[in-house]
Design brief:
The chain is α/β, with parallel strands linked by helices. The termini are far apart. It contains 16 helices and twelve strands. Helices cover 42% and strands 12% of the residues. α13 packs across α14.
Amino acid sequence: MATTQHWADFQYEIYLNGMTGAVPRLPTDLTRLEELAGHRLGPGPVGYVAGSAGSGSTTRANRAALDRWRIVPRMLRDVHERDLSLEVLGRPLPAPLALAPIGVLSIMHPDAECAAARAAAARGVPYILSSASSTPMEQVAEAMGDAERWFQLYWARDREVTASFLERAKAAGYTALIVTLDTPLLAWRPRDLDQAYLPFLHGVGTANYFTDPAFRAGLAKPVHEDPNAAVMHFVGMFADPAKTWPDLAFLREHWDGPIVLKGILHPDDARRAADAGMDGVVVSNHGGRQVAGSVAAADALPRVVEAAGDRLTVLFDSGIRTGDDVFKALALGARAVLLGRPYAYGLGLDGQAGVDHVIRCLLAELDLTLALSGHAGPGSLTSDDLVRDSA
């Protein structure tokens, strides 16, 4: 298992630093980061990260669903020594957390994905690289050394490009494949539309494609000679709304590690994933970015967990902002959570140090919430540790 870390010690580090007059550069309440990023960063980048489908109803529902669950603390349990480590997809992790795949991070900070990946590596937290990253997958892998990394696939229309991506990811040491299913088309996103802001059309978020031999083989001229043609070639293949369940066999043929399907909200889809030989699912509505009016991810989680049984590893994202959110997701049956927007804001506000701050704050708060609720680790959590707020 991963080495035990005492995540809660971060609070004492902060207080001791305060003896010299130093205070944290960023808020320790991670829910404040979005507003701060809105003041400091441009409306296009912030809108792209913070924005949602339609009126934002699904993003609000994600938060409301988590808030409806309330923790029931238990007393006089020995929580002196705590251990948040566990195994996920056959990999030892120091805590039930991974950084979710977020594309085009160069719009938030020039160090982009490499900064976020280095921060994750320093804490032993898996970094999930987006297909739509600003930095080629090999460069991000090099920045991480031998740290745990997973690759997120936007399943291209072009089979040769997809196969090439998987071959490159495997060669670069990515151990798990996270396949995003909920983005066969881009949703109606007013914050981006109002700014006419789509980074991909400017060649941002296309690094993995523009460096890919199978992608470049489809171009009449090299990328640097006709970048607009390269962008249009990317747009034409980025997603494929014609994909169906039998197509999963292609991925299994080209990837011999764990495969996790991201975007699962219905229990029948979890069963189909298991029947197709997949290893896990991420209960997710893309942080509210794809379907306005969608079921909240936390409301979908218990039914998916029940359907998955012991056949699938169930991960969770969409709405996680605090340590108690993580506690609730684990109590509802998730094995681990993926954290998205907060670390992107941390990156935008303070680079690698900002991402590190977000990881440490979240896990310190989780560690303390577990202890103060009578748990020495995530393994003892069940739905009995929660009640639903009737208000």
